[in-house]
Amino acid sequence: MTMDPPLLPAVEGRSFRVSSDVYLSPERLKAEVEHVFKKTWLNVGRIEELPAAGSYVVKELPGVAASIVISRDENGRLHGVHNVCSHRGQRLLWDRAGNCGNSLTCPYHAWRYGLDGAVRHIPDEESFPGVDRKQLALARIAVDQWEGFVFVNLQPEPPQTLSEYLGEFGASMVGYPFERFSKTCYSWTTEVRANWKLLKDAFQEIYHVGTVHRRTLSQVSNWPDNPYGRPLSVALEGEHIRVSLPANPRAPLLPTALALLPHLPRPAGELPRGVNPQRSPIWIQDIDVFFPNFFIDPSEGKLLGAYYTYNFWPLAVDRTVYEIRIYFPDPENAAERWVQEYQKVLLRDILLEDCKVAEQNHAGIATGVKPYCYFQTHELALVHTLESIDRRIREGAR
């Protein structure tokens, strides 16, 4: 594809005016999948989904990869392969999760593979003269975990380890009680009629909260001292981003929020250095954006009682598969269980507001009436993401 001139013209070293074509070009989306998603570490879930030896999960990465299998062997090691048999291309595993023991067996002709993809058994192998078992191994992918989050890279031998890829951004969050807060998980998956970057943009800024969420989050992010919902800080950590959010210290707490206070994970002074990095007394949560499409929003329970995650998958230039997960510690009584259900429904309602706005936003851009989108200083995270994607595409096109 033609990558000159840039779609993101710089203004004083930082792009504040962006071509609308960045959200509308099918050619650009194809390049994003090829040079970003297929060459980057991607989150696909948590280790709790693989509780024992032989556990597996089948993950579809919409718009990126048809189906992959992640499994855990008897030594606790993780393995990843494409869910495609080497014989005739049949899907090896049809269920979303289960336990396959120490091997993967094709349901079509019973070819059997180790969890690492190596061929273990070919029925009537003598009828395949000159067959090379090494060449018939399953197509591998790289897999690793960080703080219990499972990541894959579609390159079998990626140039960076997961630890190197996350760098200081990941290191600064080590120690947050993810394991404790991941005992209970609720999730939704939906398809949104908007470009994946446009939908993702809505969750990297709080400029919109006072209008879009005026019913669900009234007085939380906008108050006389902060009328436009400015963040506490925006940090650019390589390609990753951290946005720290404040809350109105005088906003009346909901009864459910009051009920959560005794069950916060830990006081602010003991949080990892990357969580509430300013140690602000009015901090409510962070938005941690793992390039390119994964969010973790940690808090102390003041807003939603635990933490939640998002994944954005580019199904088409105007369609995004949006995955949402909210994690809680195990409830200790009926009251805590009720609080979790309430918080789950509250999050659902907030996200429905965001999705509706994103769809209308895409429809407006698609008219072509306005050739550019504009970003203010406090929306720096959005611009940084677009620039990082653009840089990846340019490097890949050389």
Give me some keywords for this one.
27% strand; alpha+beta; disordered N terminus; 398 residues; single chain; 7-stranded antiparallel sheet
Q: Based on helices, strands and strand pairing, what is the structural class? A: alpha+beta
Helix segment tally: 7
Instruction: Note the run of SSEs as H and E.
Output: EHEEEEEEEEEEHEHHEEHEEEEHEH
Largest sheet: 7 strands, antiparallel
Number of strands: 19
Oligomeric state of the chains in view: single chain
Radius of gyration, in angstroms, nearest whole number: 23 Å
Distance between the termini: 11 Å
State the helicity in percent bands. Answer: 10-25%
Overall residue-averaged pLDDT value: 89
β-strand percent reads 25-35%
Q: Low-confidence spans: pLDDT under 50, at least 5 residues?
A: 1-11, 264-268
Strand order of the largest sheet: 2-11-10-5-4-3-6
The general outline is globular
Q: Would you kindly provide a written description of the structure presented here, covering whatever features stand out?
A:
- This protein has 398 residues and is an alpha+beta fold.
- 22% of the residues lie in helices and 27% in strands.
- It has seven helices and 19 strands.
- Strands 2-11-10-5-4-3-6 form a seven-stranded antiparallel β-sheet.
- Strand 17 (307-316) and strand 18 form a beta hairpin.
- Helix 1 packs across helix 7 (380-397).
- It is globular, with a radius of gyration of 23 Å.
- Residues 1-11 and 264-268 have low confidence and may be disordered.
